[in-house]
Specification:
single chain, about 550 residues, alpha/beta, Rossmann fold, GMP Synthetase, Chain A, domain 3, 3 domains, 9-stranded mixed β-sheet, 8-stranded mixed β-sheet, 29 strands
Length: about 550
């Protein structure tokens, strides 16, 4: 591939060479459809021309509020080619959150998926003086009224409006020619646990260099087929699924939601897939109690005959899951990164997979460990800063080094290990420093425990919120003749509590006495993104979850 400086130039170069090869596969009404590189590029150019005709100038912001779909990918390319920066918002956001991100980013326009997302925007339009237009992928009902006048278009109107414009293709090429590698490509708001989120500014250079380096590390190429399902509004899927696949000339299959993934795997038979640990935990549950040979065969059946490798990120991968996949002959590589680092900092890959680690730093990426254990990183992947927040930027990037807020270590071969979030370290009333994620990983290594959140900062001992594996617990309850004894969000049965107390006590023998979970609450349903308890990558929002149940947790210390 020719050397290019921007994401739009990268895609245009690939489309020129690859033409009618399949670039994108997507589902509509349960049927898979194909789009060629030429078709994707043409649609993106038409949409970019329309954005320019709507008055979008280089450096302005255009937001997107949509679930994953083929149009999301094309709209993202169009925004880039218009010279503007995409403000990509997570689909589950509520109206107040949408209002903050649109207002804070001073977005000129927004692209939404359909009626549900448009309603969120319309309900807060009076708070958005900078917003001039709204575009919807799906047609909106005529009865849907905005609280103030705003230009409205359908995606089809936008794409086809360029046909009546003079020299529309030339206008796009001229605009692209003004875009540099240092121009802002996107603003992504981090999912804060308290207060308003911060807008991470990433440039074309940040994203392109990170995609190219990750692609080289993973040895991906034009013959690869990626099944993609994580939200494109999040930087993980944005870089590693979209831009990496474009840069390596592979085929992107837009799958999901998560409930359809096993069917999607069968239909697309990918060579690789990115996911978060939660998905691999669910896959492991399907095979955990099989014999070694049966387990390997079943995993191969689930992921398909063409699979070469899997990758995991967004949250720590439990060691027993990594070990299980490796023993079954399915390569599962863990990486590490942040929104602020575009995102990939380190990655295990086919040339070296050290279980328990998050791999070696990517080429061109520097990593060092501070005296207090915090991980610092420097290189072309580090964000420009936080949008309209110079104070937070200065606190996070010091002398070119990004302070990640994570605690870790480098082994003698340079492999990076994450031990915890610096801000999540628990200090008990006895002065003991406890890394909660290490205890949580130990808890969820038990097949009867699906999720766990450890608590105890400033307390005399460690406690936990525990989410049982519903399927296994139901079988055990039926076998033993117990009652669950549900009350509000909790399982209150003494028999069930005794059962988990024995299992947790056994697990706690592997850690020191101050680290041991001495009391716990059993939740009767999983933590979910819909209730704000998980981030877009299904990572537990620890502080938010604790705030929801802190009253009940405190009672554990009164017994």
């Amino acid at each position: 591939m020719r050397k290019v400086a921007t994401l739009c130039a990268m895609h245009r170069s690939a489309a020129h060479i690859l033409g009618h090869r399949i670039a994108l596969r997507y589902k509509r009404d349960g049927v898979w459809h194909d789009l060629s590189w030429h078709d994707v590029r043409l649609s993106a150019d038409r949409a970019a021309a329309a954005l320019i005709s709507l008055g979008v100038e280089r450096g302005e912001r255009v937001a997107m509020l949509s679930e994953n779909r083929a149009e999301w990918v094309i709209a993202d390319l169009a925004i880039l080619s218009s010279g503007s920066a995409g403000v990509t918002m997570h689909a589950p956001l509520v109206s107040e959150q949408v209002a903050f991100q649109l207002s804070h980013s001073q977005s000129k326009g927004i692209i939404v998926s359909g009626e549900a997302q448009a309603r969120k925007v319309f309900s807060v339009l009076d708070q958005l003086p900078d917003l001039e237009f709204l575009i919807s992928f799906d047609p909106l009902p005529t009865t849907l009224q905005a609280s103030r006048s705003i230009a409205q278009y359908t995606w089809q109107q936008l794409v086809h409006s360029s046909n009546v414009q003079n020299n529309w293709q030339q206008r796009v090429l001229e605009r692209e020619a003004t875009i540099t590698e240092n121009d802002l490509a996107t603003i992504i708001y981090t999912s804060g646990t308290t207060g308003n989120p911060k807008g991470v500014m990433l440039t074309h250079s940040n994203l392109l260099t990170n995609a190219l380096a990750t692609g080289d590390a993973g040895n991906y190429g034009p013959s690869d087929i990626l099944l993609s399902w994580l939200p494109y509004s999040h930087i993980y899927a944005r870089t590693v699924d979209l831009y990496l696949t474009m840069s390596t000339w592979g085929t992107l299959c837009v799958g999901g939601p998560v409930e359809t993934l096993f069917d999607d795997l069968s239909a697309t038979q990918p060579t690789w897939m990115t996911a978060v640990p939660r998905f691999y935990e669910k896959a492991w549950e399907k095979v955990e109690f099989l014999s070694g040979t049966e387990r390997s065969a079943e995993l191969r059946r689930i992921f398909g005959p063409r699979l070469v490798q899997l990758s995991s990120g967004g949250a720590p991968l439990p060691l027993h899951i990594a070990q299980g996949f490796q023993a079954s002959g399915i390569p599962l590589y863990q990486g590490y990164g942040l929104t602020e680092s575009s995102p990939v900092i380190s990655f295990n890959d086919p040339r070296g997979n050290r279980l328990g680690s998050v791999g070696l730093p990517l080429p061109g990426v520097e990593v060092r460990i501070a005296e207090d254990g915090e991980i610092f990183t420097r290189g072309p992947h580090v964000m420009r800063g936080y949008w309209r927040d110079p104070k937070a930027t200065a606190e996070t990037i010091v002398d070119g080094w990004l302070h990640t807020g994570d605690v870790g270590m480098l082994d003698e071969d340079g492999y990076l290990f994450i031990t915890d979030r610096k801000k999540d370290i628990i200090v008990t009333s006895g002065g003991k420093n406890i890394a909660p994620t290490e205890i949580e990983r130990l808890l969820i290594s038990d097949p009867y425990i699906d999720q766990a959140v450890v608590y105890g900062d400033g307390r005399q001992f460690i406690s936990a919120l525990v989410v049982p594996n519903a399927t296994l617990l139901e079988e055990e309850v039926r076998r033993q003749g117990w009652s669950l004894g549900l009350e509000n969000d909790f399982i209150t049965s003494a028999d069930v509590h005794a059962f988990f107390e024995a299992r947790i006590s056994s697990l706690m023998e592997h850690v020191s006495p101050p680290e041991r979970v001495r009391r716990f609450l059993l939740l009767n349903r999983p933590l979910s993104m819909e209730r704000g308890q998980l981030t877009a990558t299904l990572k537990v929002r620890r502080r938010f979850v604790i705030s929801q149940f802190e009253t009940e947790l405190l009672r554990l210390y009164q017994k």
